[in-house]
Amino acid sequence: MDIIIDSSVWIDFFNYYDSKEADVLQELVENNFSNNIFICPAIYMEILRGLKDDNAFYDIKETLLNFSILDNDIMTITDRAINIYRNLRKKGITIRKQNDCLIASYAIYNGIPIFHKDKDFEKIASDTKLKIYEP
Fold this sequence. Notes:
This protein has seven helices and four strands. Helix 1 crosses helix 2 (20-30), helix 1 runs parallel beside helix 3 (41-49) and helix 5 packs across helix 6 (98-110). The longest helix has 17 residues, at 74-90. Helices cover 56% and strands 7% of the residues. The protein has a four-stranded parallel sheet. It has one domain (1-135): 5'-nuclease (Rossmann fold, 3-Layer(aba) Sandwich). By secondary structure, the chain is of the alpha/beta class. The protein has helices spanning 7-14, 20-30, 41-49, 54-64, 74-90, 98-110, 119-125; strands at 3-5, 37-39, 68-69, 114-115.
């Protein structure tokens, strides 16, 4: 099974935070599930943008590039993300981070569930075809 791992999980993983999500990701990586782990450019950016230490930046960048990166047409994905945000907003549901709509758009477009620690994805999934990975 393919899985998109959201930055909320990766950040716990790279910072060695004690969370069930980081533990699940660790288990997936250790069990050679890496070929089925995906990220998208938005996740890649969210993870790397906050790294102050250059060594950590290059190490984590190299690690991330070992996983599959979804590289769908950015305008197609962006238009779908806009529609996700607008449709939810019309129903009174506000997504705090619009980047989550972009990430959800990649997941929906590719039919890959997302593994996350972010309430916005639950809101998006409540009214779209977004699938949530439940370990």
